[in-house]
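HicB family protein, Streptomyces autolyticus. Tokens?
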Amino acid sequence: MTEYSATARYDGKWWSVSFDDLPEGYGGATQGRTWAEAERMAREAVALLLDVEKDSFELVMRPADPAMAAAIVEAERTKEEAEQAAVRARKALVVAAVELTKKVTVRDAGAMLHVSHQQIAKLAPKAS
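Tokens:
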């Protein structure tokens, strides 16, 4: 999916959005009272300028303020890391539940992993 970037500047009442990397010969700007409105307007502007569907591209909009932009990037990075960690944790819990229930009861496996025996029964259904 094609990705376009935009920069938004806040003047106290409006977010003014400019586009950073549209194809050669294309340009434009838009605005919105709120971040969400400015982002929606930016997506619509790109779609209209390029004559494409609004959901056919990725739009990455960042504030012009470097500290704000850095904070957003860091939050997105750590959120992605947390989501990946949650997936790894879920997989590890399944492996542990299967292994433990080969040798102990579902209740004991749940106590050992600090989850309910019902959750263990769902994770390792053949053992219950």
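The longest strand covers residues 2-10.
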